[in-house]
Amino acid sequence: MTTKTKNILKVIGILCVGILLGSLIFGGSDTPKSEHDHKAEQVIKTIWTCSMHPQIRMDKPGKCPLCGMELIPLESNDSAANTNAVQMTANAMKLANIQTMIVGSKQANKELRLNGKIQIDERNLYTQSSHIPGRIETLKINFTGEKVYRGQTLAMVYSPQLVTAQEELLQAYSMKTTQPELFEAAKQKLNNWKIGENTINKIINNGKPIQQFPITADVSGIITAKKVELGDYVDRGMPIYEIADLSKLWVLFDVYESDMPWVNVGDEVIYTVKSLPGKTFKGVISFIDPLINAQTRVASARVEVKNSDDKLKPEMFVTGIIKNNISKTASKDIIVPKSAVMWTGERSIVYIKSNGKNNVNFTLRNVTLGPSLGDAYVINKGLKDGDEIVVKGTFTVDAASQLAGKPSMMNPDSSNELTSNMTMIDKSKIDMKFKQQLGDIVAAYIKLKNALVDDNSSLAQQEAKKLTYNLENTDMSLLHGDAHTIWMKFLKTLQEAANKTQNSKDIGVQRDAFLVLGKKLSEAITTLGVETEKKQPLYLEFCPMAHNNEGGYWLSYDKEIKNPYFGKAMLTCGEVKATY
């Protein structure tokens, strides 16, 4: 055996002895090999979830069984910090198109839109009457709209009484030297009929009565009404024309009862006239009617305008805007977009964003709304400077929160009892009479839907009143156990939304309430079942652009899309989602 071979064997022997000693020294742990393998498996295992339905947990990638979206990997859970928060990853927020903003204090500038008409200034409207009794022999002005001037002859009148008075004047004049008092009395009688001294002297010089006397205009202006015709008999003081001076006019804006706190004397109004496109006018409110019209529920706010160029005409329609700073103190109001607020009838909520260790958390918070600023709300209570809230995708966050059993718009107590009970109720055991009552409620709801499709807010109020009646007269004794409890929760929300609709003339408010009606009524039908009239099918339809692009559902007997959230503006926007 060579020296080289011996050295190799020696090295191998040393290595074997080293391995044996190492196993004796470091192999004292009593942990089973299987446990080490299990830990390694836990480290590499990934849980997959749905960005829209966080309650879904899968051990492998795929599609969500609820909505069909691709599952995403779930990062480490940090919900222990806030058990009421719903979590989303940054990627999930992008997929759901959720946007947030940090709120801060600023001045609350309310923009109020008013409609009105141009009217004649009542102080410049004059009734021209006849100061002579008699018959209209000639009409110099034969139509309305003609311009007249002060002193212009409007009509000629034959007056038998005046002829007799002139004859008495001539007789008294012949006895002037012997009976001057009689002559003065005859002259005074003519003066009472507005017969001037020059005309009296003309009668005396001619020696015979004047047969016809003129009626002259007392003021300059436009003839707005003709009260007599040729040949008519008029008494003294009887109106024959109405004359208006149109050099100054009034713009009367309709102010609804609910808007009156925001309109004051001295406010500047910027307004436009429909018949004068491209031209903008400014004015100041000089008077607000102290009385509200009992029929229309509006008061008039007056703006006085000059009309020297005669471009403005009475009865023209105008649209005005008033902008007021309604902050109680300078720069102390929290203002948020309307898209950030969800309304349930008695509560208003927003979602607050906070950053967890690995995920983004959203937590429901109740807020108290102040005045509406058009596309924004003043928040009186519930938010502070620096809070970050969801302003787009609020409905998506709320849906995820509700499905995850967290506090949500309809379940503020974070109890998912209602959601879990829905799947436990056997609809076949629900009394058929109740299902028929629910069918009657659906029929009233669809009439309300049709009114909103036609953009008819007045009819929507009437149909909402009928819907409220059907809801109030539901026989709840037909339901028992969980079904009774669930219907009570549905009923409360449905009644609040129906009352909101019937108490508002604003079609935008009505459509916001209708959004709640459609959501809760479809849930009630899914949970309890329904028996429609003549067993006609019922379609659940959806518009993705409703409610500030957050989407809205509605029920319909007709498969053809007729959108109640936009009416004629986007009548066919939407699609059928389900059929009952």
Q: What would you note in describing this structure?
A:
The longest helix is centred in the first third of the chain and has 24 residues, at 3-26. This protein has 13 helices and 28 strands. Strands 3, 5, 20, 21, 22, 23 and 24 form a 7-stranded antiparallel β-sheet that branches. A 6-stranded antiparallel barrel has the order 6-15-18-17-16-19. The chain has 580 residues and is of the alpha+beta class. Helix 4 (160-174) runs antiparallel to helix 5 (180-191) and helix 9 (432-453) packs antiparallel against helix 10.
Q: Total helix count?
A: 13
Strand percentage lies at 25-35%
Q: How does the overall form come out from the CA principal axes?
A: elongated
Question: How much is the radius of gyration in Å?
Answer: 42 Å
Decide which structural class fits the backbone: alpha+beta
Q: What's the overall average pLDDT, rounded?
A: 80
Number of strands: 28
Subunit organisation of the chains:
single chain
Q: Largest sheet, if any? A: 7 strands, antiparallel
Helix proportion of residues, in percent?
Answer: 25-40%
Pick out the low-confidence regions. Answer: 23-44, 75-81, 414-423
Distance between the termini: 94 Å
List keywords for this structure.
alpha+beta; 6-stranded antiparallel barrel
Structure in a nutshell:
By secondary structure, this protein is an alpha+beta fold.
